[in-house]
Amino acid sequence: xxxxxxxxxxLTFLLALLGLTGCKDNDFIIYSAEDLHGSPIAIxxxxxxxxxxxxxxxxxxxxxxxxxxxxxxxxxxxxxxxGIAEKEExxxxxxxxxxxxxxxxxxxxxxxxxLIVHKSxxxxxxxxxxxxxxxxxxxxxxHRSILSDxxxxxxxxxxxxxxxxxxxxxxxxxxxxxxxxxxxxHRYLKYISGPISYFIGTIHNVPSIVLIFFFYYVVFxxxxxxxxxxxxxxxxxxxxxxxxxVFKVHLNxxxxxxxxxxxxxxLHGWKKYRYVILPQAVKPMLPLIAxxxxxxxxxxxxAGYISEVDLVKVTEIIRxxxxxxxxxxxxxxxxxxxxxxxxxxxxxxxxxxxxxxx
Length: 358
What we know:
- The protein has 358 residues and is an alpha/beta fold.
- The chain is built from 15 helices and 5 strands.
- The protein has 2 domains: 25-132, D-Maltodextrin-Binding Protein, domain 2; 150-354, MetI-like fold (Orthogonal Bundle), CATH 1.10.3720.
- A 5-stranded mixed beta sheet has the order 2-1-3-5-4.
- The longest helix has 35 residues, at 151-185.
- The radius of gyration is 28 Å and the shape is elongated.
């Protein structure tokens, strides 16, 4: 019950944050364009020259934005009190975003622009907010950015891609790390595994995104291999470098007398490690394994660079279609937050089960 309550608190906090980002300070009400003199103004594209804008809004801080999503985000979080866009693009944004409204703009005919203001800054917004309520406005925003137009299917697909890359990557990292350690302990194979282990340990210093590009555009360039598998292999190789070091350090920290005691008990090879060495080495390495697993999880966000639809790529798609940045970003943040805590909780469960008598 405590396990579920913790994640419920996270989701509630993120929902509250979403609602707060949509709330404006209603002490400032805009009745006309003259009320915006001295206020920060967002500009999308080139609806007018800087000289015209300075004449229209004297003493205002003019901020230029290249993309419509950044433009609306500046209005949403209160970075700018109003925005000006070219008429065609401005009315398109208003059609897709019912939270905003066009304000009468005396200079619109001369500069072919539309003045966009958030509804909470217009007269009557207090009554509107009171009627709609905090929860209703948040639910409406979530529905528009996640549930409508099948966006939830995209999110599920992105989650599947991210989760698949993480699981495959961590399995590949463990298998590779254990294989290298096993080869290092063999009399003859250590001459082969030594250079490989050194290469893997060195390549960990290369940024993971560069490693993904190397595997995708060089190693598997001529092969028809899924981008998910390529990312999993690249991230597995990247993470195995750290795991090899973690395993090696903690295995070497076990006292040599323990090895001798195991041999005196007739335990050799795998049995010696299974019953004597590993129980003493695994306990202190679990927190480091959890940390490396979370690093691998965060690195899966680079899959979008090779056109895989992961969670971050889905956020970009939804943002470009709905012009809402906050809802998908908060959702993806919540998913990664929960996944990170699940990793820690899973290893904590292993820790408590395996070492409860220590």
